[in-house]
Amino acid sequence: MSPSFCDSPALSRRGLLKFSLGASAFLATAGLGASLSGCSSSVPASGFAALRSGDLMFLRALIPVMLDGAVAVEHKSDAVEGTLKSLDYSLDHLSPEMLKLTRQLFDVLGMAVTRGPLTGIWGSWENASGDEIRHFLARWQNSSLSLLRMGHSSLVQLVMMAWYGRKESWAHCGYPGPPAV
User: Fold this and answer.
1) Are 41 and 52 in contact (CB under 8 A)?
2) Would you kindly state where each structural domain of the chain is located, as residue ranges?
3) CB 31 within 8 A of CB 104
4) In this structure, are residues 155 and 62 in contact, taking their beta carbons and an 8 Å threshold?
5) Would you call 155 helix, strand, or coil by DSSP?
6) What pLDDT is attached to residue 77?
7) What's the superkingdom here (predicted)?
8) Strand, coil or helix: what is 38?
9) Helices of type H across 67-145
10) Which of 7, 9, 26, 71 could in theory staple to 3 by disulfide, Cβ–Cβ 3.0 to 4.6 A?
11) What is residue 75's DSSP assignment?
12) Angle 13-37/96-110 helices, nearest 10 degrees?
């Protein structure tokens, strides 16, 4: 009788915890390293209160993929820019600690040394195809590492709240808007 898949020493709880701890330490170190080395500027991009230029490159690649099917192609660029403005407004009103964590997530996704291994996107975000971005999102959503699943959840929630908080998104989902007072 062959051993079951779950009895494999590589998949023990202890092994998984060690791996998760190591991965968490790596991501925290990479984010801290980017912050301390100046790789990630804390200066907002022109016209934005919280989003930085590196964040915008990543988000301008991510948001159109996340809005597929919710926005007509001819309105997608306006929808992306409106979503960025809504997201920027929301981030500007976060607590300093939550903004710091969000920026660390964006830093990890923006640095080439962490972006490639963690997302599978080895080039810049601007050159990533929609399929590559969908694969990255699925990879994080279904990851065995809770840290990556939390990162996926954070990205989806940030972008979707920014989009569905906008008036132009309401017609697509059948929401008539708030009642007139």
Assistant:
1) yes
2) 16-169
3) yes
4) yes
5) helix
6) 94
7) Bacteria
8) coil
9) 76-92, 96-110, 112-119, 130-141
10) 7
11) G
12) 100
Euclidean distance between CA atoms 32 and 104, whole angstroms: 8
Helix (H, G, I), strand (E, B) or coil at 93: coil
Q: What pLDDT is attached to residue 42? A: 77
Residue 5's pLDDT band, with cuts at 50, 70 and 90, is very low
Structure tokens at 78: 């306006």
DSSP state of 74: G
Q: If you search the block for the tokens 């808007």, which residue do you land on? A: 177
Tell the residue number behind the tokens 């159109």, with chain if given: 64
The amino acid at 57:
M
Is the pLDDT assigned to residue 39 strictly greater than 70? no
Within 8 A by CB and 6+ apart from 165, the residues are 86, 90
CA distance 120 to 131: 11
Residue 119: partners with Cβ closer than 8 Å, 6 or more residues away: 109, 136, 139, 140
76 residue type, one letter:
K
Nearest residue to 139 (alpha-carbon basis) of 125, 118, 123, 124: 118
Average pLDDT for residues 61-65, to the nearest whole number?
97
Beta strands, E only, 3-53: none
On whether the CB atoms of residues 168 and 79 are closer than 8 A, the answer is yes
